[in-house]
Structure formats: C-alpha cells, structure tokens
C-alpha cells in the first residue's frame, strides 16, 4: 500500500501491475496529469498522429501478441476519435483497454469544453465501460477492466476518468483478485452436449470443420489440428481464423463465404455435418441463410452462448472455450475410425478442379505481389487494410501459424491496417510486419508514417495501387452497370514523395520483375517503408458470391 | 407471444440505458419495462415484457446475460409467477355518469383517488387483462389521460434477490 498518491499515479501504477509495457496515445487537456505521470514512468508511450490510430495500434498489438493492448486519449474529440478503433476491436473480440480523460466532475453534463459522453457513445461497442467518479476506485476498475477485456469472449473496455479524479489523492492498494458477482466467464462444458456432439461426429460421412477466430484467441490451433486429423474432416478457416489451421495442410480447404474458395463453399453445401468452432455464422460466411448447408446438422462450439442460434439453427450447442472443448471431444472419440475417405476424395477433386487462379500479363498483378511476399518472407506477420487488398492478402499468402494474419473482419475498417501493423511490430519487434494495403485504405491513416518514423517502427506498407476504391469499384462494375460513382482516385497522390516528406523510405514498382527486389529493399532498409506497387487496374477479386446468393452460386473468372 | 423477464441488476447509473440500448439495437420489442429498488440497496430489479417467439426470447436472455452489470436474468412463466400492473385512468364524468363510473370501479375493486368537477382519476391494479377490461369499460365515458406502469412480476418460489446476489449466479 502506498499512501497519498494522485489518481494519475494510481492509474500508471495499476497499469504496471497489469504488466503493460506500451501505451499508444495522444495527449490533451483532460489527460495532462496522466501524461505528466507517464513522463517518468517505465512504460513506453507511442505518440500517434490521430487517436483512431492509437486504438488500432493497441488492437494490432493485442492480435499479434495475445496480450491486452492499451490506448490513451483525451476527452471529447480524443475519445470520439477512438470510436472506430474500439468498434473494430469489439467486432473481432480483441482485448483492449482504452483510457480517456474527461472534464472535471463539476463540469460533467454542462456541455463543457471538450466534453463528450464517451461512456454513452461507446456503450454498444465495448464489452464494458466505466466512468470513474472517485479516485479510490481507480485500482479496482483497472483490475476489472483488464480481467473483463481478456477473459471469456475478449473485447474492448473503456475507462473514462474526469481530470480532477486524476489529481485527487488516494491510498493505493492494488486488488489481488477481481470480485464481480455478475461476470463469470469460465463455464464448465456440458458433458451431455459433448456426448451428443461426439455421436454426430462419429456418425458423419461428410463433415466440415468451420474454424473461426475463437481458435486463435483460445490458443487451440494444435487441438484443432489433432481433432481434424483424427476425424479426417476438411477444415475451412474464416478470415478471423486465418492461421488457426495450416493453409498447406491436405485437409485445409481455405476460406468460406463471399470471397472464399469454391471448394470450401461446395464442401459446406454438400456436407452432412458442420462443426463450427469459435465462429459466428457471419453473413459474409453463410450467404443466403435459407440455403446454407441444407443437408447438414450443425454443432456449434462457442464461448459466447449468445452466438449460438443467433443466425442459424443448431443441432448441438456446446458452450465453452475452444481449446477445452476440442480436447474433451477428441478424447471422447479417440477410437474413432472415420468414414470420410469418399468425401475427402470428392473435396480434393473440387480443390483440383477449382483452384484459386489469376492470369499473368506484363503488368504487376496484386496476387503476384502477395505470393512474392510469401516466397520471400513466409514467417511475416501480414496485416491488411479492407477491400480487395484484404481478400488478395487472404487468398495468396500461405498462412501456417496463428497471429500472423491481422485484419479487420467484422467491422471492415479501412485505415485499420497501417496503425495495426505499427502495433503488431511494437509487440513483435523480431517479426517482419507487412501491411498489405490499397491506395484508398492507406490514405485513411497515412499520417501515421510520422508515428512509425518518430518511434522507429520499421513496418512495410505494400500498397496495391490501382487508382480505385477497388472493392466498391468492383461491385459497380459487376452490379451497377459500370457506373463508377466516386471510386476513381487515380494519380491523386505520389506515395513515394509522401513517404519521403515524412522521412520514411518510399519505393515504387511498375513491372513484375521489380516486385521482389523492391520488397527486399523495403524489408532490408530497416526503416518504415511505403511501396507503391502500380498494379493492373482491371484485376478483381474472384471467386465471388453475389450478395444475397447461396454460397455455391459462386462466380469466377472464366 | 409475450414473455416476462426479470433481471436483477447492479444498482448503478447507466444500467437502465445499457438494457434499453441493447433492446433497441438488437431490434427486440419491449412492450413494457419497469425498474425499481429491491430489498437490497445495491440491487435493482427490472421487469421487461417482450414480444417474440422462443428464439427471440432465448436471444434476449443471452444478450442480457452478457451485460456485465446484470446479475441474474430469468423468464417468469405465467404458471410459476405472479404479475401485476397499476394504471391511473382520468375519466370524464358529469353528474349523470359519475355514479355509474363509481359502480364499475367498485366491481373491479379499483379506487378513486382524485375527484374533480368534470373528471375522476381511477387507480386500478391487476393483471394485464383486468387493466385492459377496465380501460375498455371506461372508454365510453371518455378517457382524458391514462398511464400504466407496465407489468411487475415475481417468481412464486422462495428465491430472493438477496440469495442471488450472494450466490453471484449468472446463468
């Protein structure tokens, strides 16, 4: 116990107790006392150039490391600028703790300068949030916030602290444990449900394992591999589940859904059993719900009971942590002799007949850039923006390990990738971190080049530059009679000069043979580097399930 | 289909907003919502009547359970619980109709709690159908204003907010 310290000091001490090593943030009036304490503290602070980037960087750090990310912002606009980042983390179940300053208690509710009701604003996009009214609550609230953010189904927690609370004095005593009667994230797995699941699994001749981000969160990749190999079922990993199962494994069928592989979608549609683990039957996965997996029974394993039966009918629900459930399920059926050899043959035939493919020409193809990144840096952490770049990054890199593909799946936040890459690199300094970007998305947070340069965070941004807001442009081409409303942004910015203006490295490649040397130069520079890959503008993302169609009604490049 | 849900929640600022916000953003239909203190000062009870099939009910219960400030949520089935609603009805009367209205009030074991020259305020307590019947009977005299509390309900068994708060049981 330390007597008579300020609320600001108590906050920093509490963060140290939570082993926080880095904070992404931006100072301001309401957080002056906190930043004053941070000045002497043994915690790294990365100054971003826009608070949105602080939230995304904390998120990227969390996804790359598995730890809880932390971001700071001031009251009012500082907090509202965090909102997109918090919502992104919420949709993808990422543990972050956001601390915002607030106007002094006496000014709450009077529309004071830089006042915004940030707990009200973030209520639907946080797992929980707090407005601290008394300095002595700070240690308990921080303890609870980290606990809530990182346990059960993880998610963002926001702590709003009025300025005068940070200057009030308290006796500091960090609680040893959390005492929340209303939050019990650990649930015992129901053995009856497990047995039912086991009997469906052993009876199935055409099973498909549908693996989501829950596998990665729960560190269950090994258990998934063992389970899949035992029951000999094809595995389709979602965008959030990339890296949960090795792409190159013979049982892998790639991603399901809108831009999934044909063979994953065909397998789902013909299967007699879907085993969903840590996935939530998002509309981008299921397509038209009424036509989804028409002959399949469904086992849904998820830690969040509210996900079960939210979108699809479920035959056997199993509430629990993916790792625990897969371990128990595997041991229940370990004598099992799978009857799936015909099925695997059929799936393999689809894999052979309908591979991902594109046509080469004398221009740089975006898919080739992604393949080249894999050839040169197979162990890299790939971060993406949102749109065509994201889908190509998913399709043409071979992921083998969890936490190597970082992307905004649920919210689909353009501008996420670059700051998230900065966060990932801070958390995993030994890894090569490459943000695969589009020219549109990158411009949403390009100011963060300054952050990367000032804090010496050598991430590489590979811009797949087609001069379009590509994914929307693609939809306009296919479904809006080529009426390209506000999606053409050609020659609006010189990315090489932009990088150089920030004292980062700017490179450009226009021919296919320049791709690999440019990538090498970027990574070997050891500095934040922006590469402008001028790609074939006619290239689109295929295959593709049109909105509202069943997932086997999938169109492809002829 | 109508369901009555009882939620024991932490008695803290913002909890009601969290509950009502959840209902609106997830497109659940609230028919009525009543909130008040319990025998424990740190626990409030929210009684919510929702419309929807059993799948909707299941989602409502699960989503409510996810809110950190919610201690316990349960459906109160009509069989295992009692529910009451209170309504205040301001009825138009004149010297000719006043006694007839008072007779109806008597039959319903309701009360007249305010008398003015041209109106009466009737207090009626009962289940939803009783309140509705009363409203219908009085409507031909002319209802000037009406307010209903929405249902409040309790399980017939002996479980109390105290027990649940001590257990810290959530599911």
TrEMBL record, chain A:
<dbReference type="GO" id="GO:0050660">
    <property type="term" value="F:flavin adenine dinucleotide binding"/>
</dbReference>
<keyword id="KW-0460">Magnesium</keyword>
<dbReference type="InterPro" id="IPR012000">
    <property type="entry name" value="Thiamin_PyroP_enz_cen_dom"/>
</dbReference>
<comment type="pathway">
    <text>Amino-acid biosynthesis; L-valine biosynthesis; L-valine from pyruvate: step 1/4.</text>
</comment>
<comment type="similarity">
    <text>Belongs to the TPP enzyme family.</text>
</comment>
<feature type="domain" description="Thiamine pyrophosphate enzyme central">
    <location>
        <begin position="194"/>
        <end position="329"/>
    </location>
</feature>
<dbReference type="InterPro" id="IPR029061">
    <property type="entry name" value="THDP-binding"/>
</dbReference>
<dbReference type="InterPro" id="IPR000399">
    <property type="entry name" value="TPP-bd_CS"/>
</dbReference>
<protein>
    <recommendedName>
        <fullName>Acetolactate synthase</fullName>
        <ecNumber>2.2.1.6</ecNumber>
    </recommendedName>
</protein>
<dbReference type="InterPro" id="IPR011766">
    <property type="entry name" value="TPP_enzyme_TPP-bd"/>
</dbReference>
<keyword id="KW-0786">Thiamine pyrophosphate</keyword>
<dbReference type="InterPro" id="IPR045229">
    <property type="entry name" value="TPP_enz"/>
</dbReference>
<keyword id="KW-0285">Flavoprotein</keyword>
<comment type="pathway">
    <text>Amino-acid biosynthesis; L-isoleucine biosynthesis; L-isoleucine from 2-oxobutanoate: step 1/4.</text>
</comment>
<keyword id="KW-0479">Metal-binding</keyword>
<dbReference type="InterPro" id="IPR029035">
    <property type="entry name" value="DHS-like_NAD/FAD-binding_dom"/>
</dbReference>
<dbReference type="GO" id="GO:0009099">
    <property type="term" value="P:L-valine biosynthetic process"/>
</dbReference>
<dbReference type="InterPro" id="IPR039368">
    <property type="entry name" value="AHAS_TPP"/>
</dbReference>
<dbReference type="GO" id="GO:0044272">
    <property type="term" value="P:sulfur compound biosynthetic process"/>
</dbReference>
<dbReference type="GO" id="GO:0009097">
    <property type="term" value="P:isoleucine biosynthetic process"/>
</dbReference>
<dbReference type="Pfam" id="PF02775">
    <property type="entry name" value="TPP_enzyme_C"/>
</dbReference>
<dbReference type="GO" id="GO:0000287">
    <property type="term" value="F:magnesium ion binding"/>
</dbReference>
Automatic annotation (TrEMBL), chain B:
<dbReference type="InterPro" id="IPR002912">
    <property type="entry name" value="ACT_dom"/>
</dbReference>
<protein>
    <recommendedName>
        <fullName>Acetolactate synthase small subunit</fullName>
        <ecNumber>2.2.1.6</ecNumber>
    </recommendedName>
</protein>
<comment type="pathway">
    <text>Amino-acid biosynthesis; L-isoleucine biosynthesis; L-isoleucine from 2-oxobutanoate: step 1/4.</text>
</comment>
<dbReference type="GO" id="GO:0009097">
    <property type="term" value="P:isoleucine biosynthetic process"/>
</dbReference>
<dbReference type="GO" id="GO:0009099">
    <property type="term" value="P:L-valine biosynthetic process"/>
</dbReference>
<dbReference type="InterPro" id="IPR045865">
    <property type="entry name" value="ACT-like_dom_sf"/>
</dbReference>
<comment type="function">
    <text>Catalyzes the conversion of 2 pyruvate molecules into acetolactate in the first common step of the biosynthetic pathway of the branched-amino acids such as leucine, isoleucine, and valine.</text>
</comment>
<dbReference type="GO" id="GO:1990610">
    <property type="term" value="F:acetolactate synthase regulator activity"/>
</dbReference>
<dbReference type="InterPro" id="IPR054480">
    <property type="entry name" value="AHAS_small-like_ACT"/>
</dbReference>
<comment type="pathway">
    <text>Amino-acid biosynthesis; L-valine biosynthesis; L-valine from pyruvate: step 1/4.</text>
</comment>
<dbReference type="Pfam" id="PF10369">
    <property type="entry name" value="ALS_ss_C"/>
</dbReference>
<dbReference type="InterPro" id="IPR039557">
    <property type="entry name" value="AHAS_ACT"/>
</dbReference>
<dbReference type="GO" id="GO:0003984">
    <property type="term" value="F:acetolactate synthase activity"/>
</dbReference>
<dbReference type="GO" id="GO:0005829">
    <property type="term" value="C:cytosol"/>
</dbReference>
<keyword id="KW-0808">Transferase</keyword>
<feature type="domain" description="ACT">
    <location>
        <begin position="4"/>
        <end position="78"/>
    </location>
</feature>
<keyword id="KW-0028">Amino-acid biosynthesis</keyword>
<dbReference type="InterPro" id="IPR019455">
    <property type="entry name" value="Acetolactate_synth_ssu_C"/>
</dbReference>
<dbReference type="InterPro" id="IPR027271">
    <property type="entry name" value="Acetolactate_synth/TF_NikR_C"/>
</dbReference>
<comment type="similarity">
    <text>Belongs to the acetolactate synthase small subunit family.</text>
</comment>
<dbReference type="Pfam" id="PF22629">
    <property type="entry name" value="ACT_AHAS_ss"/>
</dbReference>
<dbReference type="InterPro" id="IPR004789">
    <property type="entry name" value="Acetalactate_synth_ssu"/>
</dbReference>
């Amino acid at each position: 116990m330390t007597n008579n310290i300020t609320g600001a000091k108590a906050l920093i001490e509490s963060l140290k107790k939570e082993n926080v090593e880095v904070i992404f943030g931006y100072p301001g009036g309401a957080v002056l006392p906190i930043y004053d304490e941070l000045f002497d503290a043994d915690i790294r602070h990365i100054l971003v150039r826009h608070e949105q980037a602080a939230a995304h960087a904390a998120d990227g750090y969390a996804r790359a490391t598995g730890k809880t990310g932390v971001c700071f912002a001031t009251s009012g606009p500082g907090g509202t600028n965090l909102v997109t980042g918090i919502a992104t983390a919420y949709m993808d179940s990422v543990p972050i703790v956001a601390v915002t300053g607030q106007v002094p208690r006496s000014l709450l509710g009077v529309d004071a300068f830089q006042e915004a009701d940030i707990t009200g604003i973030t209520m639907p996009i946080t797992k929980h949030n707090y407005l601290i009214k008394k300095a002595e609550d700070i240690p308990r609230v921080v303890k609870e916030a980290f606990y809530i953010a990182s346990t059960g189904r993880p998610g963002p927690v926001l702590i709003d602290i009025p300025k005068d609370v940070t200057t009030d004095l308290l006796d500091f005593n960090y609680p040893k444990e959390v005492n929340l009667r209303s939050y019990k994230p650990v649930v015992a797995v129901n053995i009856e449900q497990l047995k039912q699941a086991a009997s469906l699994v052993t009876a199935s001749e055409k099973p498909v394992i549908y693996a989501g981000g829950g596998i990665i969160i729960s560190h269950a990749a090994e258990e998934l591999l063992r389970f899949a190999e035992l029951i000999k079922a094809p595995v389709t990993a979602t965008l959030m589940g990339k890296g949960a199962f090795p792409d190159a494994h013979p049982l892998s069928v790639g991603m399901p859904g809108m831009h999934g592989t044909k063979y994953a979608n065909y397998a789902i549609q013909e299967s007699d059993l879907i085993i969903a683990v840590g996935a939530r039957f998002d509309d981008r996965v299921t397509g038209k719900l009424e036509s989804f997996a028409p002959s399949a029974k469904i086992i849904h394993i998820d830690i969040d009971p509210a996900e079960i039966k939210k979108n699809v009918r479920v035959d056997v629900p199993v509430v629990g942590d993916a790792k625990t459930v897969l371990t128990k399920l595997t041991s229940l059926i370990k004598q099992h002799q799978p009857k799936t050899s015909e099925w695997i043959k059929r799936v393999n035939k689809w894999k052979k007949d309908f591979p991902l493919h594109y046509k080469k020409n004398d221009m740089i193809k975006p898919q080739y850039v992604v393949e080249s990144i894999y050839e040169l840096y197979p162990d890299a952490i790939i971060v993406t923006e949102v749109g065509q770049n994201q889908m190509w990054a998913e399709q043409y890199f071979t992921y083998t390990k969890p936490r190597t593909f970082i992307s905004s799946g649920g919210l689909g936040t353009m501008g996420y990738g670059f700051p998230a890459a900065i966060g990932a690199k801070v958390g995993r300094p030994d890894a090569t971190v490459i943000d695969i970007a589009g020219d549109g998305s990158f411009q949403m947070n390009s100011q963060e080049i300054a952050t990367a340069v000032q804090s010496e965070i050598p991430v590489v941004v590979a811009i797949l530059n087609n001069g379009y807001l590509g994914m929307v442009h693609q939809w306009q081409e296919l479904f809006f009679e080529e009426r390209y409303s506000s999606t053409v942004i050609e020659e609006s910015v010189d990315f090489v000069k932009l990088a150089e203006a920030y004292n980062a490295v700017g490179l450009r490649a226009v021919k296919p043979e320049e791709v690999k040397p440019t990538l090498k130069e970027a990574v070997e520079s050891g500095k934040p580097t922006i590469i402008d890959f001028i790609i074939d503008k006619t290239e689109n993302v295929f295959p593709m399930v049109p909105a509202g169609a069943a997932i086997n009604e999938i169109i492809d490049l002829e | 289909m109508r369901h009555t849900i009882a939620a024991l929640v932490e008695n803290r600022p913002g909890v009601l907003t969290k509950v009502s916000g959840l209902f609106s953003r997830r497109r659940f239909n609230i028919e009525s919502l009543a909130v008040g203190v319990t025998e424990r000062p740190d626990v409030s009870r929210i009684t919510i009547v929702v419309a929807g099939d059993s799948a909707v009910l299941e989602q409502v219960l699960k989503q409510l359970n996810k809110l950190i400030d919610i201690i316990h949520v349960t459906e109160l089935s009509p069989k295992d619980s009692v529910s009451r609603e209170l309504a205040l009805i301001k009825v138009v009367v004149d010297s000719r109709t006043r006694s007839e209205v008072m007779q109806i009030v008597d039959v319903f074991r309701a009360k007249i709690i305010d008398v003015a020259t041209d109106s009466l305020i009737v207090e009626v307590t009962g289940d939803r159908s009783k309140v509705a019947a009363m409203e219908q009977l009085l409507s031909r005299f002319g209802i000037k204003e009406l307010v209903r509390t929405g249902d409040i309900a309790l399980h017939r068994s002996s479980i109390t907010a105290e027990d649940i708060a001590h257990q810290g049981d959530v599911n």
